[in-house]
């Protein structure tokens, strides 16, 4: 899900520039992607109609309610760590750029945030004894290819506790709940208060019982979503969002006390340092807060590391112009870095500032220009002349990354009373046969 996590915000942020593409159409398709990944009881207005209710007994093995939330791309597993990051970033997207959205798009984006935060409230409801961080065994799940509605595999649940801590996943969950609380502050104050109360509780748990969830749950979270960067970046990220949500200076003091000085050229579900620094730099630009200058300096060093043409550029670019950081799902790093470019450009413009990478001058327009090139590449301005967004453009992938998009409903009357089983779905995974599904985009 990470590639789509921030893409609609990037589309919003460049919407006022000269348009190479129909960004409004791409925005609608970007938001609707999340409906395809929903778990739980689906609402009556669900647009993607080849999905239906699933995972309705999730959590029952531990006598808790863990229904809802999002599946992770092609898996039927609910990984709490990247799901929380996804929800955090959707919330940040709405906060920064939601005013540019049409009413129906903004409502759909808020609904996507709420779907994730509702689940995270359930996952954190049993603190301080346990934070539930995963549903499903990925090793077992990867041996099957079956619709989420027809799952035949067991649905074990996994949690972090005081004796088996997970500061990284807990602090990310706190960040997510805090960011979401700001999204709903004015439209649903009661829900917002509930979210911030839970966020503070989860963050206290993350700080009090320190350790990486990769150590506590290594057999089920690694190598899928190991916390390779450790947990201090999530503690900074969580504190930053709690400071933004509560205006409680103790969270800012906490963030500064961590003393994190590492540079980074990647922002992702694993490494939150650049995101936290950009977030905390905002007040330094707008209110000239000297105590936040360190975060501002770090944010600018990140930009210098990723900008093409900067003397300190440390990421590569393909011959076609795409930012290239890592093998495997490279677009997630492209979109997350580009989101930070557009957001930081907004802060710079508000403060009427520029900065330098050596003798390379960086202006808000330069950041937006480079971000736009990445977006346009994804939407089809690339050597293959192919959009990487399902449904956008003339040539594009035909299915979203979800099992249901490749496996038809087993029963002919649509009741799905039977299924292909754990192995039967692979015939569609490997087949050239094209199964047609009607996807109702909001046109």
TrEMBL record:
Residues 39-60 are annotated as: Disordered. Keywords: Carbohydrate metabolism, Cellulose degradation, Glycosidase, Hydrolase, Polysaccharide degradation, Signal. It holds the Pfam family Glyco_hydro_9. InterPro entries: 6-hairpin_glycosidase_sf, 6hp_glycosidase-like_sf, Glyco_hydro_9, Glyco_hydro_9_His_AS. It catalyses: Endohydrolysis of (1->4)-beta-D-glucosidic linkages in cellulose, lichenin and cereal beta-D-glucans. It is an enzyme of class 3 (hydrolase). The active site is at 401. Residues 23-412 form the Glycoside hydrolase family domain. The keyword Signal applies. One of its GO terms (molecular function) is cellulase activity. Residues 1-19 form the signal peptide. Its EC number is 3.2.1.4. GO terms for biological process: cellulose catabolic process. Belongs to the glycosyl hydrolase 9 (cellulase E) family. This is Endoglucanase.
